[in-house]
Amino acid sequence: MPNVNDIFQLDGKIALVTGGASGIGLATAKRLAQFGVKVMLLDINQELGEKAAGEINESGGFAQFFMCNVVSQADCQRVAESVEQAFGRIDILFNNAGVIRRKTVVELAEDEWDLVIDVSLKGAYNLSKFVIPVMAKNGGGSIINTGSGWGIKGGDKAAAYCAAKAGIVNLTRAMAIDHGPENIRVNCVSPGDTDTPLLREEARQLNKEEGAFLVSSAQGRPLERLGTPKDIANAVLFFASDLSTWVTGSVLVVDGGGLA
Known about the structure:
The longest helix is centred in the middle third of the chain and has 28 residues, at 110-137. β2 (38-43), α3 and β3 (62-67) form a beta-alpha-beta unit. Helices cover 48% and strands 15% of the residues. It is α/β, with parallel strands linked by helices and 260 residues long. It has a seven-stranded parallel β-sheet, with helices on both faces.
């Protein structure tokens, strides 16, 4: 009987993880590293990013931190070229970086709208633009984008976030069509409310008491709890692995049944 590492077949692969310094990005980087992936953590927070890479290396994995603002095409090109030069390949890209502003279109300032759209949607485009040619040269790869339940249905006071995540969902499908012939699979993980710094930031933006906000975010879900970053990381692991070799253009909702 094969062991679990043989089933996932990830040893020695190279992954880029955006928003890798905390939350879902960090949990995913740690999970991938457990299966032998060399993980490149991309983030704008150097202190947290270097700390995260250190934690992975100390636990026996392999991680490097790259300062990268995904809104900057120059930053994304620099990182993709640096990783290709160092390792010769990129096998996995997790486009996960995102921000939220809990406001209606009337309340949003233009720069707030631009920030949310740029980090989540333009960021995925920027990095994919430079990673896809590297994957294609090496026989293919797997791209996983972070969507949201609010990319599938609307939510209150989150107009820019809903728009960005809906864009991610259909960008995923378009990229899957375009790059399938190069053996590049593109899929989307759409979390429900997950206990991350981003969710806690939402409480502050809405002037809600954090504990009560987290409790209310779990209510109404059949599984009756918030998601954890590890819950989402496990879904990303599936898409990154050979267990999903005939899966592309799909959107996997991981939300405890919230959209059921």
